[in-house]
Amino acid sequence: MITKAIYPGTFDPVTYGHGDIIARAAKLFDNVTVAVATHPSKSPVFTQDERVELISQVFSHLDNVSACGFDCLLAEFAQQCHAQVIIRGLRAVSDFEYEFQLASMNRALMPHLETIFLPTSTKYTYISSSLVREVAQLGGEIEQFVDPIVIKALSTKINR
Predict the structure, then answer these.
(1) Domain residue spans in the chain?
(2) Which residues of the chain, if any, have pLDDT below 50?
(3) Per the annotation, where are the binding residues?
(4) Matching PANTHER family, A to Z (predicted)?
(5) Which of 50, 52, 110, 148 could form a disulfide with 75 if both were Cys (CB 3.0 to 4.6 A apart)?
(6) Is 59 helix (H, G, I), strand (E, B) or coil?
(7) Cβ neighbours around 46 below 10 Å, total
(8) Binding-site annotation: residue ranges for substrate
């Protein structure tokens, strides 16, 4: 049986913390789809298509990883992808309560869908996309947080 997993998020932008989860998931599952969400309450720097393209470029070396946008319920998208597993990254214990609620709701909507929590590596626990955007917008160095492809794209967006 081929195991398909999805790793959902807004990824605005994708960080080394996300990359840690993606690379580890790629070792655990046959196929991993990085599911790039539209979020009605967020104003992303990058369009959904740009975020999908950045993820595709950054992770092109992983043959079993792809990126795709979605704008529906996660459980519905998982069904469309024939995914059996949702991957959720945890940076801190404080993330768990919210993530547990999401997992419970997804299980109620799709009982056969499993959620796997992967704690990020310790060196990435403080990295968030919003902090990376803020540091970049204020002219700070972000090389230790994101791939050079993302740095170039963020620089282009910010300097417009």
Answers:
(1) 4-125
(2) none
(3) 10-11, 18, 42, 74, 88-91, 99, 124-130
(4) PHOSPHOPANTETHEINE ADENYLYLTRANSFERASE
(5) 110
(6) coil
(7) 22
(8) 10, 42, 74, 88
Which CATH superfamily includes the segment(s) 4-125? HUPs (3.40.50.620)
DSSP secondary structure letter of residue 35:
E
Contact residues for 62 (Cβ-Cβ < 8 A; gap 6+)? 22, 23, 26, 32
pLDDT at position 92: 78
pLDDT at 159: 79
Which pLDDT does position 94 carry in this prediction? 76
Residues serving a catalytic function are 18, 42, 91, 129
> Cα separation of 24 and 155, whole Å?
28
**Beta carbons within 8 Å of 118's beta carbon, 6+ residues apart:** 21, 24, 25, 87, 88, 89, 90
User: What is the pTM (predicted TM-score) of this model?
Assistant: 0.93
